Request: fold
Amino acid sequence: MFRPEVTQSVGIFNNVLAWGGGLERIAMIRYGLSDVRELYDNKLSWLRMQPICPL
Amino acid sequence: MVKDAANMPVIEFPLEDISRLFAGYDLDYIIDMLPFIGLDLEYRDDNYIRLEYSPNRPDFSTFYGIARALNGLLGKELGIPKFEVIKNKKNVIRVDRSVSNIRQFIVGIVARGYKLNNKTIKQIVSMQEDLHNGIGRRRLKASIGFHNLDSIEFPLDYSTSSDNLSFTPLDHHSTLTLTEILNKTESGKKFGELLEGSIHPILKDSKNTVISFPPIINSEFTRIKEGVNNLFVEVTGVDKKTVDNVLANIIAMLAEIGFKLENVAIKQDSNNSFSYNSNTNTILENVKPAYINKVLGLSLSNEEIVNCLRKSRFDANVVDSSRIDCMVPSYRIDIFSPIDIVEEVAIGYGLYNLEPSLPEYTLNGNRSRQNYFFDKIRQAMIGMGLIENINFILSNKDIHYKRMKIDKFDFFTVNNSKSDEHDVLRRSLLPSLLLSLSKNIHEEYPQKLFEIGEVFVPEKDKFERWNLCCVSAFNGVTYSEIKAALQTLMEICFKAKFETRPSENSSFIRGRSADIVYNEKVIGQIGEISPLLIDSFKIKMPVAAFELDLSGLLQM
Reply:
């Protein structure tokens, strides 16, 4: 939860909750990758072999 | 000081020490409880665990501080710990006004009656390093000197001295002048920049023996080691609050080790008054129970709130039904405002006791209108057999300027970029797609890629835009082929009539290059990629491409 000093300074007076997950990490688990950079290599050979990931 | 990959301080806690400090509890239970006072378990084996903690909790730099906090949560020790400090009129530091220009603040504590062993010294050093590097800001705001009390005589003098004063610094065998210490010793070289000019702060005792040259180094004469029974600790610095916070943590640690503590009085030479450790617990007044319950989503009574705070080692006093005064322990340097009290209530309540609940309001998220639109484009492109590519917006001069053989350099650039890889904002998508093609020259052809992404063009108006770019690479690709793709897209997605007007573009082969015109405005370019670029990207296959600005089409 944000400290009120942070949100109030921009005019927000309600409680603010923030959260986030690492989608890359979930993708790595799902696709069996050990290095996150493999998601950014733009390798067609890898991409063409991957099954569709249903939402 | 030990820090982990995230640069957060860590402490290694041997399992045998955990068992000893929490005798009567299951070891695994204690280890499982530690995250609930704010310690992250990073590593565990048969000998020790490694815990990561936040730099605003220097009290977690020793086992004593961890035990103090966990004992509260376990219910074994409640409320503010009492550290008894008695007055001894002999313990005086006289402060000369000359230090006010260089390192103004000094406080101290005397600790008697515990025989130091290697284990306790290790704990002391661990806390000292944490305080130096954390809130001490690498010794600038505060630095600490631990001394063997039996080697010094009060009253002490904290004053300044010129460069040619000499003494034997810690770990050395002969005397060095202050200048030599600054230039030749490790500490001198590391921290010398905290002292400007040629007058330096020096702490001496009544026999004129140099005890310390803060924040640089202590004297070898007052070295603490195994077997030392009595300590004198001084904290100097340029920030009063930090100096006090540092001393508060040291007092808490020394008291828990088992020392008997005595005050040290500070006497400013400008007046006759003595000031003692302002090491008291602070009070945060008028905290509203309603506020606590609102943030936490609980309905605790005032008494329950007080109990939770006591488990966090705070004390609290119910002033009336809507106000609680909270006593904050001196070593808690991280408590600033009521929200911090809310957090301590939550910790004392037990974070594991907080039950997740669904939000009161059911609001739905949805695709933005823009993304709904982009998805239609994606469907059309994929339907035509293209593969979507997503590339970095922050890229580099090599790919977007040098390899593209552009004349004018007109990009948003990063000031003082730390990396060559990320120093300009891209102004078009084409270069990154060409780069993707260049990474796949051993793969099967045809290779057809597209990207929908943001670009940044340094123009007064609307410098942030969304573009669509499409590249097609295979033996025999032509302008007609790529134009067919553009036409299909425009008809399916936008039902838009457009024109291509021949133009010159440095990226494309002359005669095979055109502007894309929609509504009388040039919204993009289309053509066969020039052999110069094929070569600079080392693609080895002909490529045809188009790129257009989606904003004009989005208005539909």
Notes: The mean pLDDT of chain A is 88.
